[in-house]
Amino acid sequence: MKRRRNKTRRKQKEKRTVDELKEETNRSGSPLVSEGKNGEAGTTAATTPATTAPPGPNGAAPTETITGAPVIFFLGGPGSGKMTHAQNLADIHEGYRHINLTVVISEYIKENDLGSPQGISNTIALALLAREMHLTPRCKGYLVSGYPRHMEDVHNYNDKLGRPTGAVLLEWDRGTLIKNIEVVGWFVWLHNT
């Protein structure tokens, strides 16, 4: 019984966050989240992720579209360097933006007091990604790390936003990944002490 109550509370909290996302995106002029079938969240801007940018400072929506911007996913195991490589490429290639969805989701969780990233649905993750793309409408391309998290995310992205331009798979042997994680952990420990 306790498990059912926790699940209900989590769904209520997620529903509230979907409503907040809907309200936020409606204010910006980018309808990223809509009411889906049976009252669940659906993504509408996702059908045309970047046909129009959010309104500019004067409230008018810019006419420039961003649908032609390439989207490249960086995939790999923990410690493979997805974020590092994506950010390095964004630094080298002017006009490309690195979207670290892990950080975006973490900030969203903190702002909305949601607890853990596991409670974030695929719909919200996709809406957050689309929102980040809308924030930089004149971007030459997007280098995305931390997404997709599961195969379902890939199908959801393809259905709502279209096919990504490509993916970079960073594959290392297990020993190297463990070593990378240990080095990063050691660095974080040193930095925090």
UniProtKB/TrEMBL annotation:
<dbReference type="GO" id="GO:0005524">
    <property type="term" value="F:ATP binding"/>
</dbReference>
<feature type="region of interest" description="Disordered">
    <location>
        <begin position="1"/>
        <end position="64"/>
    </location>
</feature>
<keyword id="KW-0808">Transferase</keyword>
<dbReference type="GO" id="GO:0019205">
    <property type="term" value="F:nucleobase-containing compound kinase activity"/>
</dbReference>
<comment type="similarity">
    <text>Belongs to the adenylate kinase family.</text>
</comment>
<feature type="compositionally biased region" description="Basic and acidic residues">
    <location>
        <begin position="15"/>
        <end position="26"/>
    </location>
</feature>
<dbReference type="InterPro" id="IPR027417">
    <property type="entry name" value="P-loop_NTPase"/>
</dbReference>
<feature type="compositionally biased region" description="Basic residues">
    <location>
        <begin position="1"/>
        <end position="14"/>
    </location>
</feature>
<dbReference type="InterPro" id="IPR000850">
    <property type="entry name" value="Adenylat/UMP-CMP_kin"/>
</dbReference>
<keyword id="KW-0418">Kinase</keyword>
<dbReference type="GO" id="GO:0006139">
    <property type="term" value="P:nucleobase-containing compound metabolic process"/>
</dbReference>
<protein>
    <recommendedName>
        <fullName>Adenylate kinase</fullName>
    </recommendedName>
</protein>
<feature type="compositionally biased region" description="Low complexity">
    <location>
        <begin position="40"/>
        <end position="51"/>
    </location>
</feature>
<keyword id="KW-0547">Nucleotide-binding</keyword>
